[in-house]
Amino acid sequence: KVIYGSVGVLSSKQQAAAVRSLAALHSYVDLDRVGVYGWSGGGSMTLNLIFRSPELYKVGVAGAPVPDRSLYDSIYEERYMGLPADNAAGFKAASPITYAEQLSGKLLILHGTGDDNVHFQGTQRLINKLIGLDKQFSFMEYPNRRHGLTPRDFTHRDTLRYGFFEQNLPAGGR
């Protein structure tokens, strides 16, 4: 119940705090080289983390994210967020797109154009927002692919993701 009306707000703060706690406990955790990847809800969390904690997250790969909570499935949203008309501030605060101007790290967005769960329109809205903010990012669309892509796409997706991390968080930490 603590997340009701603000999905992603508390959890992104907690995940950033957890990374900082790990670094305080373990000297091998290099806070200058933190990256995050997620798909669907994890893609939304990736955006939340890289936008809300840009000083911590240097690289993010967000697959099929929900950048704008107002564009997601009403059955899910209304269960956890209430109605948009009754919780406009909560929907805004819970939407990663609200914090896009804070992007300073490297971001790769992946999305299938035929996604029947997390609609591609939200990613298009985020892309337009990032362009309008003159924020650089990388993007890969998977034409006519649904939410989970297809098994034949997995190697391509994984190779692209791993390559993005290798390029932007190369070996050689402290």
Describe the 3D structure.
The protein has 174 residues and is α/β, with parallel strands linked by helices. It contains six helices and four strands. It has helices spanning 9-25, 41-52, 74-81, 88-94, 120-132, 154-168, and strands at residues 34-39, 57-63, 106-112, 138-142. Strands 1-2-3-4 form a four-stranded parallel β-sheet. Strand 3 (106-112), helix 5 and strand 4 form a beta-alpha-beta unit.
Reading the helices and strands in chain order gives HEHEHHEHEH
The count of strands amounts to: 4
Task: Tell me the structural class.
Answer: alpha/beta
Total DSSP helices: 6
Give the biggest beta sheet: 4 strands, parallel
Cα radius of gyration in angstroms: 16 Å
Instruction: Determine the N-to-C terminus distance.
Output: 40 Å
- Estimate the helix proportion, in percent: 40-55%
Largest sheet, spatial ordering of strands: 1-2-3-4
What are the key terms here?
single chain, alpha/beta, 41% helix, globular
Q: How is the secondary structure organized here?
A:
Elements: H1 9-25, E1 34-39, H2 41-52, E2 57-63, H3 74-81, H4 88-94, E3 106-112, H5 120-132, E4 138-142, H6 154-168
Parallel strand pairs: 1-2, 2-3, 3-4
Helix pairs in contact: 1-2
